[in-house]
Amino acid sequence: MRATSEELRGQAVAANGVGDYRRARRLLARAEAAARAQHDLEGLTRVAITGALTALELDGREAAERTLQEAHEQARSLADPGLMLRCAVQRAAIAARCRDWDEVAAVDPAIRPHLADLRPFEQAAVHINSALAHIGLGDPERGRAELVLARAVAATHRLPLQETKATHNLAWLDYLDGDLPRALVGLRAAHVLGSPDDSRVAIDLAQVLAEAGLIDEAEATLTAALTALGRRRSAIDRGDILIDLAQCELVRGDLTAARRHARSAALGPAVQDRRGRQVEAGLIVDLIDVIRGRHSTRGTFPVPAAGDALGQLALRVRVEQALVDGDPTLAARLVRGVEPRSGGLGPKLHTILLRARVADAQGEPLQAERMMREGARLLAGARAASGSLSLRAAMSVHARRLADYDLDRVQDRSPTRLFTAAERWRAGSMRRPVEIVEDPEFSALVGRLRQVRAGGPHTSTADDPSLLPRLEAEVARRSWEALRADTDGDVIAGHRAVAAELARTGTILMSFHVRRRRLQRVDLTSDGAQLRDLGSVRSALDLAARAAADVRDLGAMGRIPGIGERVRAGTRASVERLDRVLLAGMPRGRAFAIVATQALLSAPWRMLPGLAGAGVVVSPSATMWLQRSRAGPGVEDPVIALIGGPGLGQAARELDVARRVWRRAAHPVRLRRTGRSDHVTTSLRDADLVHICAHGRHDGQAPLMSSLLLADGPFLAHELPSRPRASHVVLAACAVGQAEVGVGDEPLGFAAAMLARGVASVVAPTAPVDDALAEEVMVAYHRELATGESASTALQRATADRLDAGVFCLYGGDWRVR
Asked: What's the gap between Cα 642 and its chain centre?
């Protein structure tokens, strides 16, 4: 039996809904033929109304409006109010797709009195289009109310497509409100409800990920959506994706790629049908040209009104151009029109950067300094709602230009100001311990991942090789949704407070930073500060990478007869070369705090000859070192927890000796020779010192998947509890001291995650370590620590005159028993 015109049109409506516009056109052609064969004028009108949306996606807005106008005239000739109503509904839908919010608002009053005459899916569409118009015109609360109505209609009548759209747009509102974790939850729910190829959900999810600083994840999402579009040829979505890819590359700093994507979008026919998006693409090109010091092509594109988002972007581009042209007076006049709280985190920080540059250009350095502090506070506030370590760290990417400018503007002033400027943007996600809201579903998901990694029953990946990577990806995605349970404000250590602690502890602090591709070091003592230029940062990082590779070889082959000595000699030579660069002209002292930058955080600091015989603490920031050193030392009557993992022959001896050492010092000890994940979590919550002897794994691609192997499987960094009681943790586990360091010197890894969750002080190796060596070092370390020595001194004595033992490093702050 042949399908009727109405059945075919219904299938076309569904195809439009999932973005399969070419299939919709084929179905509509058949529906039109069937209607003509039956001389069904009403059916022909309905086909034309549906076809207007298909024409928009495939041929542009002009073709869509022409098709809809023909349908409207036919409906009027038939004197059919129902068809005329549906023409109005489709006109609003086309306008909403083109972001013509004024047109949607103009059409909506003609629809509202007849809402009950529409079918449920049409009612939901009216509510959604109206919501988008209210949001676009600056009334998000009315928009939210309309979306709630749309979702209720869709849920009542079991309309998954409309429910997906409503849920998706409610999540977008959460994003606009700055609630990134909740937005990610909503977008994930929309993705589950809808089609996996839904490009609109993918596009909005990518924008939220980019706002969170997760640029790689945003680009992967957009690229997958662009590939999916190859089957459906939605030119409008293609233009949107290209613009968003340009924004991602702009944030990343790849101006060439950003300009290429933006120009492709600006010249695309579908974007030209949506004038606002064409202007946005052109303005991105202009901004990139100005950043490069060229004259922009802003005359090519009309400048929108200053009150909307595009107008704000246009104003910021013009301020940049005025500064490049050396006209601070014009720049100052223009910047007054830029709304300081307009847009997301990126535009707000861009505005602060422009105000600071204008202030400096007009000889007002104090005002520029206030702008720098405001930018740092804004970034800290954006992090505040999230309990995700990766998301909090990633947000620093939005402050890249602001941080670079902060260093540039104080370069010729005192070293203490340079120290303060570098500290302001360094490892900001770790200044306060992050307490998260417990999520049972996430805990269950991580438990499932642990079982699969451990090869437990019913978890074989032989039949499904994608199971493990899918679980790992889902754990990472769900971790971004973690909500923060506390709202502590941001604190940045000033050089005076740091200097006072240096004087109290007899420590010298060496703070490294990068300025214009040069590695620099500020040596801060109780007496003052000195700046040293150490040369090309690329050369220093290459030396550090070579040294790290040699240290890994030393751990793996250092005790093999005939090979070990050659490996040892090569390692010694590489760390000496690194020492000559990093520690050139270093002050003399017996205790050092190292505030490293980029990949230097994982360098083998305690192997460097210049630090031989000294106590060394390595920290992501001076602020963390100050906080943890004040809080860590002097723990009275500590509770000790000792935990062992499987597959280590020396673990039992190491733990037994450590237990005897601490019992002789009259401290309570809890020993778990066969530790499980719940033992680690419990010990971190109710002990002061936790020692874990287990196989360790650092995951360079997904650092929060780094793990310790326990009896019930791998214990992931994702599982670490927040606000632990434990103030000192010793990880006798290969390589878990390593970290992947992103923009803003934000480290991610197992030891770094412990510091971020609130542990004051962590000992961990930066590379694989021989089991027998680890046992020797750890036994000696506990003996020293139990006498009341500081952790830095105890580690120095436990590893003295042993090159390979230098892989163990103390992170965060110092610690001792009182």
From this structure: 34
DSSP 8-state symbol, 561:
T
Mean pLDDT of the chain: 87
- Phi first, then psi: give them for residue 691, nearest 5 degrees: -115, 125
SS3 assignment, position 616: strand
**What pTM does this model have?**
0.81
Q: Distances in Å between the alpha carbon of 677 and those of 134, 143, 271, 498, 755? A: 49, 46, 53, 37, 19
Tell me the three state secondary structure of residue 315.
helix
Task: Quote the CA–CA distance of 761 and 689 in Å, as a whole number.
Answer: 10
In the numeric block, which tokens belong to residue 267? 């010249």
CA distance linking residue 509 with residue 525, whole number of Å? 6
Sheet containing strand 518-525, strands side by side? 528-536, 518-525, 508-515, 591-595, 615-619, 808-812, 761-765, 728-732, 689-693, 640-644, 669-672
Residues of the chain with pLDDT under 50: 270-273, 298-301, 457-458, 487
Of 565, 586, 576, whose CA–CA distance to 608 is shortest? 576
For the segment 114-147, what is each residue's pLDDT rounded down to a tens digit? 999 999 989 999 999 999 999 888 788 999 999 9
Give the whole-number percent of the chain exceeding pLDDT 70: 91
State the Cα–Cα distance between residues 402 and 408, nearest whole angstrom: 10
Distance, CA of 28 to CA of 7 (rounded, Å) = 10
Q: Which residues pair with 765 in a beta bridge?
A: 808
Is the distance from CB of 795 to CB of 765 less than 8 angstroms? no
Q: pLDDT digits over 159-212, tens only? A: 888 888 898 889 888 877 767 777 877 777 776 665 555 677 778 888 888 877
Residue 124's SS3 state is helix
| Dist. CA 396–CA 764, nearest whole Å | 26
Cβ-Cβ contacts under 8 Å for 222 (sequence gap 6 or more):
202, 203, 206, 241, 244, 245, 248
Q: Which backbone phi and psi does 461 adopt, to 5 degrees?
A: -100, 5
Beta strands in 436-555 (DSSP E): 508-515, 518-525, 528-536
Rounded distance between C-alpha atoms, residue 382 and residue 207, angstroms: 15
Task: Please say whether the beta carbons of 652 and 673 come within 8 A.
Answer: yes
Give the pair of three-digit tokens for residue 463: 């039949």
**pLDDT for 52:** 93
Of 712, 300, 685, 758, the residue nearest 488 (C-alpha): 758
Residue partners of 289: CB distance under 8 A and separation at least 6: 259, 295, 296, 297
Radius of gyration of the chain (CA): 31
